[in-house]
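tool_log.txt
---
The assistant was asked to compare two proteins side by side. It first ran the structure predictor on the initial sequence, then on the second. Raw inputs and outputs are pasted verbatim so the downstream comparison step can read them without reformatting.
(1)
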Amino acid sequence: MSPRTSTGPKAKPSFDSLPDGGYVRFSQLVPAVVPASRSTLWRWVKARKFPAPAKLSDGVTAWRVGDVRAFLAAQEGGTK
């Protein structure tokens, strides 16, 4: 099974099936989609190498799926 998919009655939708306008929380993002540690991801955000998250409400921070996909596409394009 791909690390971006999940199954079962309480399974979260896979990253690939989410709409670009959707949001993904940290626990759904690292390490399943972005292979980095918590501190590395926040260091990338601070250095503007990774998209900044949106504050959806008190205690809820999430990244726009489309922004994360653009980051991943840029990374794949840079390694070829």
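(2)
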Amino acid sequence: MIKNKGFYFLCFCSFILSGCWDVVDIEDRGFIIGSAIDIEEDEGGKQPEFTITNQMVIPAGIASMIQSGGSEEAYLNFTSKGKSIYNIQEEVAAISSKVPFFEHLTVLVISGDVAKKEHLFSNLLDTYYRDVNMRRGIKVIVSEEEAKNLLEFTTPASNLPAMHIEENLEKSSKHVGFLKPKAIGDIEELHLQEKSFVLPYLHYGEYLEYKSGAVFHGPKDKMVGVFNTEEMKGLTFLEGESTTKIITFLYEEKIFALKVIRLESKVTVDPKNIDDMRVTIDLEIEGIIKESINQEDLTQSQEIESIQKAVSNEVEKIVEKALKKGQEDLGTDVFGIWRKLETKHYDTWKKVRDDWEEGEYYFKDVEFDVNVITEIYSIGATNKTT
């Protein structure tokens, strides 16, 4: 009996001391921080072929640049082709000496050609939704050119393209006031509800530029157009984002610039007539004059009131331009009017929800009334700029 207990004890010890059977040493992991999806020409209506580019970090390259300013690459891009996203991702292990590790994936770049194919974008993302190793916070963007090009763009200050993209998006949202990028988790919810949305639309040239947005039509499940810089500003005003914005406007035929410190947006829907709904948008803006090429006395209340009116008129134009583009040209409610109906007037929403952006298309008949109130509480450190 004692011998049997000793044998069982040794077996137990060998089990608990053996460690995890499927453990992968960190040295053997290939940390993927960025992915890009392009599409090959679809010949004869066959199943399209995809080109997937995964960006893997090379720790030795990063250490070399930090310690001695060496020129060794800090990343390596693996490009594979196939008709299944999952199979392509699995092939990375076959062409690399590392085991792909996607838990640090930060950005997913989709080419415009992929985004414009009906139902293709959501179907591709389904692979990322299902994978338990993928984080829900992965930022998704659309590339004007081939998506893989964005994973090759570096700067002297950033030698990891995927990280540079993420930093570019963050700074554009925080300091310029552009729309915040959406994560995979947010997009999945919008896809399930068949709601329209806007994603960052990046241009690759001398610089990596985020100045426009890719507009996705919910029911059509594809990209249907692009918001330019001014229309993107109108959208962010409507959403009431509290990020810093600079409004450039003309006053007395001179250029002024106002820095927005506070922004509040209120949207009210009058659904009495579903064929002629009324939506009132009230915006309140507080700001500081940051630039003035003018010789007027800005300490005079009458002068300030005139400038405030000029700002309000400029913002109204920007917002109305975005509304017109979304409503008339693209047929998409990316402004969230549907959400106001759903939460405040659910009985009306039940009547129109199946025909809001298609069919009867009730959204096209919505009348918008935009009202902007601007308050300038500082004119800067000087009275005049002459």
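---
observation on (2): Residues 301-329 form the longest helix (29 residues). DSSP finds twelve helices and 13 strands in the chain.
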